[in-house]
Amino acid sequence: MHIDWRREVNDATAVKIVCEECEQEVAVAIRANGRLLCRACAEALGQSGREVSYEKILHQVLLDMRGRLDDWAGLLERSCELRRQGRGNNGVLLEDRDWNRLVERYRRLEEYYLALHRVFRRRDFPIPDPGWRSTYVERVINCGYTSKLGD
Ligand SMILES: [Zn+2]
């Protein structure tokens, strides 16, 4: 299933799980062959699969964003290492302009991540592995950058 996490987070209060067959909104859907179906359509089409709830989807979006942010922290660490070896300003041998664009992109991703956290709190969903956040922030700060996720 494709998750448009940007829309998911920006429009979190309006997010719905919609059956891809009858287009009705449901709280819990069945994921079968890459499609989201309501129980009735899944049954009518003879499809079976795993249940998908709104909470599970948000959980998946959160993990997906953490994966991206971990990749970013990893890139900062590699860049930092190269810089120590005296190879280029940002250490990754990107043009400054491209590097700045990358930094901007991850700042926006951090903002999305914070927005997602607020959705979890608003809906009383427990945040999985809450220690992830401080580990991430430490990694970024160790590289001499700031993070919107804390200090
Ligand atoms: Zn349906």
Present as ligands are: zinc ion
Distance between the termini: 35 Å
**What is the count of DSSP helices, taking H or I runs of 4+ residues?**
5
- Overall spatial form: elongated
Count of the domains: 2
Q: What Rg do the Cα atoms give?
A: 19 Å
Class inferred from helices and paired strands: mainly alpha
Give the integer mean of the pLDDT values: 84
| Spatial order of the strands forming the largest sheet | 4-3-5
Number of strands: 5
Structure characterization notes:
With 151 residues, the chain is mainly α. It folds into two domains: 5-53, no CATH class; 55-142. 54% of the residues lie in helices and 11% in strands. The protein is built from five helices and five strands, in the order αββββαβααα. It has helices at 5-10, 39-44, 54-84, 96-122, 132-142, and strands at 17-18, 25-26, 28-32, 35-37, 50-53. The chain has a three-stranded antiparallel sheet. A hairpin with a 2-residue loop joins strand 3 (28-32) and strand 4. The radius of gyration is 19 Å and the shape is elongated. The chain starts with a helix and ends in a 9-residue tail after the last helix. The mean pLDDT is 84. The structure holds zinc ion. Zinc ion is lined by residues 19, 21-22, 24, 37-38, 40-41. Zinc ion binds at residues 19, 21-22, 24, 37-38, 40-41.
